[in-house]
Amino acid sequence: MFKSIEIERFRSIRYAFIEGFSQINLFFGKNNCGKSSLLESLFLISGPSNPSLPVNVNLIRGYWKSSLNDLRLDFYNLDTTAPIHIKAVDGETRDLEIGIFEQRQNSVSLDGRDVNLLSNIEEGKYGLDLNFTINNEPFASHLRIDASKPGTTVGTTPKKYKESLQCAYLNPKFDFNTSIKGLEKILQNKDEHFIIEGLRIIEPHVKDFVFTGNDMLVDIGLPKRIPVNLMGDGARKIVALLTAVYNCKDGVLLVDEISNGFHHSVMRNLWEILVKAAIQNNTQMFVTTHDIDSIKGLRDAAVGKFDDYIAAFKLLRTKEDELKAYHYSLESLDYSINQDIEIR
């Protein structure tokens, strides 16, 4: 599990160092303080051999363009003269640098030390170079895009490295049909009980469910099972969250704005079942919110039960664009809420 992360020159974050992570980690703070960028940094360092990830983090935000100027958006102040740097410790030390590749004219490389050795590089090619080390062992992956062929990308990954860490990112506008593909595995392993328990937070009459094709049908005591889509956003998100926890067994799950789609009254029960599922599957979770009801829900669900599994961090961005994280124990978080200290 991740214990710490260091970030340099990524998006709006000039520098950040955060340590003291636990199994369930909640980040809260004002809008635009860097919560999503922190999750994206964790996503990047979880799969450094995948050269498409820096583009995918823009897709997560609903931004589909990948021109050279679009790639620059990931760099602090749009300055590509210095690489993005992310370092994390999770039992092993992962160290990643991301730099821009740009070729404006035809050239011939004769340098045998050039890891991008090409006999001819066409004008208009650009991309990203991901240089990373795992416990000081160096690797590299590359993304190349040809401006003359829109939508065409070529990625190269290191042959001697295979990523062992499973990581998933669930954003507020998640694709439900994609997110529940793991339900078949859950049913095969007869582990559907915690999905049913989760759905009962929204609909107490849930008895069971079946998964057929791309449809999840739920028995709520009517003559026929109904599609889970008809049960509302909250039911769909509970299924997506619990499926992701299960699929990220022994890995990492990143959840942006967890309270979206939920009424404040369900947050305590939601947190309780999520924490139980994460512990059962040894899934480390990193969750963001700017909603005080989410924070109170975690406190109420975990105090006295899961204290050793929870870490909460208030995020603030300084005038110098340093991301600061202030660690709260559940007890101190409880005190802060009771004293009406502003934690939004």
Write structural notes for this entry.
- The chain has 344 residues and is of the alpha/beta class.
- It is built from ten helices and 16 strands.
- The protein has helices spanning 35-46, 53-60, 68-71, 176-179, 183-188, 193-202, 233-247, 267-281, 292-302, 330-338, and strands at residues 4-10, 13-19, 24-28, 84-89, 93-103, 125-134, 137-146, 153-156, 167-170, 208-212, 215-219, 226-227, 252-255, 284-289, 310-317, 322-328.
- A 13-stranded mixed beta sheet has the order 8-7-6-5-4-1-2-16-15-3-14-13-9, sandwiched between helices.
- A hairpin with a 2-residue loop joins strand 10 (208-212) and strand 11 (215-219).
- The two termini are 27 Å apart.
- Residues 107-123 have low confidence and may be disordered.
